[in-house]
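Hey, I'm writing a tutorial for new members on how sequence and structure tokens pair up, and I'd like a real worked example in the thread rather than a made-up one. If someone can provide the structure for the chain below, I'll link this post from the tutorial.
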Amino acid sequence: MTERDLPDSLIQIQDDFLELDQRDRLVLLLEFANELPELPPRYAEHPDLFERVEECQSPVYIFVEVDDDRIVHLFATAPKEAPTTRGFASILAQGLSGLTVEQVLDVPDDFPNTIGLTEAVSPLRIRGMTAMLGRTKRQIREKIAA
């Protein structure tokens, strides 16, 4: 999959960031942070299902659900005091949820490097988002193998 072969949801997110200058990209990242979807009630009281992404500086947890039609649903939590981490989690939750297993697994591992934030945030934070994507893919592989 080439960069432009991304699913439409990720192309839209990528384009939204790349159309902006660096300062405005950070503003958009904060908007994503504020839009991190709330957990559905069935998961809100089951933090034991979520996996911590240790590479992130802030505590972020993810959980992947694959339904009978092989559609992916990504859920994430991150503290409001960690807007960068929340923003990254939100980008992935919004960009990957609703895609097929195959579409998500085909997303390039370096997708976080392609949205124009590598100069705006630290490499450590980009590695955190890359780790979130990697864990998402691993959870999907485990669920479809079961």
